Amino acid sequence: MKRTIYYGIILAAFSVFFYGCDEEDETASPVLNLSESSKEIDFQKNVFEVDLMSNTKWELVNKSLWISAVPGSGDGDAKLTFSIAANEENDRKDSVYYEVITGIEKVRKYFVVSQKGVPAEIAISPWGEKNIDENGEEFEVKVYTNKDWSLDLASADEGWISLSRTEGSREDSIVVVTVNSNVGDVHTGTLTFRAGGASVELIVTQEENSCKAEFTYEGEIYKNVKMKDGRCWMAENLRYVPAGMTVSDDPAEDTGIWYAKMESDADSVKAYGYLYNWSTVLGGESAAEKVKGICPPGYHVPSQEELNVLLESYKREDDKVYLEDLEADGFQCTIGGQRMFNGKFTGVLGYMWASTDASTATVSQNKGLMLSPVLKTASVANARWTVGIGLRCVKDEKK
Questions:
Q1: For residue 78, what are the domain limits?
Q2: Over the stretch 333-357, which tens digit does the pLDDT of each residue have?
Q3: Do residue 107 and residue 194 come from a single domain?
Q4: Residue 65 falls within a domain, yes or no?
Q5: Between these two residues, 353 and 106, which has the higher pLDDT value?
Q6: Of 112, 114, 115, which Cα lies nearest the Cα of 44?
Q7: Cis peptide leading into 242, omega within 30 of 0?
Q8: Are residues 110 and 224 in the same domain?
Q9: CB-based contacts of 317: which residues, under 8 Å, 6+ apart?
Q10: Which of 94, 98, 275, 359 has the fewest beta carbons under 10 Å from its own?
């Protein structure tokens, strides 16, 4: 009998066929059947059997890199043992076909092998949550995975955080995360690392700027400024009227709060704020270092020590602090004058309250910041409790 063998290439890399003949009876129809038409297996090394039913000789040609079968040939029925290598990659699938040809008749049967890939695993360090202060930070995230990975960033804000890369291969990788200095509110972003069906998250939170450019207190918008002492100061004088009090433009009236320069127009109030006596500044609180008084929430009346540190950071070689240097950094040196203890007004100097008591046996007074437009300097001086001067608050330090 003349035999003809037909070869076929099936799907990816695996091609198998069987051929056979009945040397004794050329007229017999070839029979070829399999006990199963497909097999699904997991990623691990697998061995399984498939029954082959045939009435002729057959031969198995196996060219797959990850599947092998024995025996390689036979005559009639047989039990095929398939060995599948462990799959360290992604899911894979191959088709095997068996073919028997006798004369002009062709018999072909397919067998499909599907194997899952190794389960994706991914871990990162750090993971979970990471808190960044307002100054920003650059840090590394190490990625450990057995698959190719990708990285997504989800955040309601833009521009505050950047990533050195957003994908990588199976090898251990490093992502550099850069968080910029914060000029506003709290930022939150979720970094999601994915590999196959696995994922892990890192939530990055950056604290708000402790010295925002502006804030609102009792309907008034104020500017902040961060000075060379590292502290956050109000850039302008307070213009708050406590409940039940009335601002006076007559220094002879003992109202506890007066217009600076005795000018009541809105522009003057905006530029100079109000003048307060010490009792009004306390706002019903007991006198103490760094008392809050009528300052906005989160702020307090500066102590003498805080004023000294501020001025020390701006001293020139002649040991003086000049108004122009303070103003260059945003600290407005407004000269609103003062309501004198004798009920008169003078506009020669500008004063701001400090919380440090400087009383003597005969005079009740506090320390304060004195601004001299004549000398063009700033220094610490004394102010009696009954005078009316400006109030410039400083933000509380973080604990």
A1: 32-115
A2: 999 999 999 999 999 999 999 999 9
A3: no
A4: yes
A5: 353
A6: 115
A7: no
A8: no
A9: none
A10: 359
